[in-house]
Every structure is written in C-alpha cells, then in structure tokens.
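By convention, the token line describes the chain's fold. To illustrate:
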Amino acid sequence: MNHVLRQLNQETSFTQEMFDRALKDYSSASWTEIVEGLNLKYSGDEIKALKLIFTNIEVPFTYQYISKRIDKLSEADDRVSKFKEKYNLRKVFDDMFEVGVIGNTGQRMIFKFLKD
C-alpha cells in the first residue's frame, strides 16, 4: 500500500494507473532484493537467465513445465542455453525457494515488468 500512497501526490482518489505504477515499483524493489541474494551464487548473465525463466510463469508449475520452458528459451537466448548446461534444475529450485522467487503456495508471481 505504501507504493500506492507514493503515487498519490496531489490526487484525491486512487486510480488504476496508480496501482499499476505501484505494482511496477514494488516488483522492481522486490527483484532488486532477490538479486542481492542471487549474486552470492550466480553471475549477472545467469541472473538474467533466471529472470527470463521465472518471469510470467504459469502457477502452479511442474518440474516438466520449467524444464520445457528452459529448453524453448535456450533456443532463443544464449544466456539461458549456457545456464541450462551449467546447472542442475533441482538445485536451482532450491536456490530460488531460498531467496523467495518460488514458494509452495501456488499463488501468482508478483513480478510484472511493465513497459513505461
């Protein structure tokens, strides 16, 4: 809610645009915090690959779904291809759970990187 309140400025009522901007700000702030944790184990390009893999995924997802998604993304992005060759997916799931990218609730991901 604080992110929405920061959007209020001189307005006297809330608008959908304010909520959209707040969601973008919250997503960016959350991702920045998560990247700090990922930096301990992954390089910059590997983190970019993880962002591609986990942004806008279907929830809940299965191991097979993510595995197929990685295969498809690796055809179009070298970072994902290199990441796929280097890391075991089960270990990646553990790391993503540890930093809060994935959980066990089945709720939608909060990351929405909207265009300005």
